[in-house]
Specification:
27% strand; elongated; 4-stranded antiparallel β-sheet; 108 residues; 38% helix; 4 strands; Tetrahydropterin Synthase, Chain A; alpha+beta
Length: 108
């Protein structure tokens, strides 16, 4: 009955949710000696299974590994990177990932 409904949903999340991705640390495609660390979260329109977030993480890691330094320099480079990350996440999630929120972007 109605009593079991809230316990069954457990998460009680039926609307938009924000899920933190594991940090992404890898080297750039060029120059290969430059490392990048990206910490981000995915904003979903509705709760998604954890596997979805893991698949998005793997896709974003693959994308970041193809980057060249000149592609991410400056404000426009950052905006292009964010747009590419969001496009990749939206494709992987079937449109459920609405935004990628970048918390940390470190190059060294």
């Amino acid at each position: 009955g109605n009593t079991e409904r809230p316990a069954e949903s457990g998460k009680e999340a039926v609307g938009p949710t924000l899920v933190q991705l594991a940090p992404i640390t890898t080297n750039l495609a060029s120059p290969a000696e430059v490392w990048i660390r990206l910490e981000a979260s995915v904003f979903y329109d509705a709760p998604q299974p954890p596997e979805m977030t893991e698949q998005i993480h793997q896709d974003l890691l693959a994308l970041v590994r193809t980057l060249k330094m000149h592609q991410i320099e400056g404000a426009s480079g950052y905006q292009h990177l964010k747009a590419d990350l969001e496009e990749r996440a939206a494709i992987r999630s079937g449109g459920h990932a609405k935004q990628i929120l970048i918390r940390t972007l470190l190059l060294e």
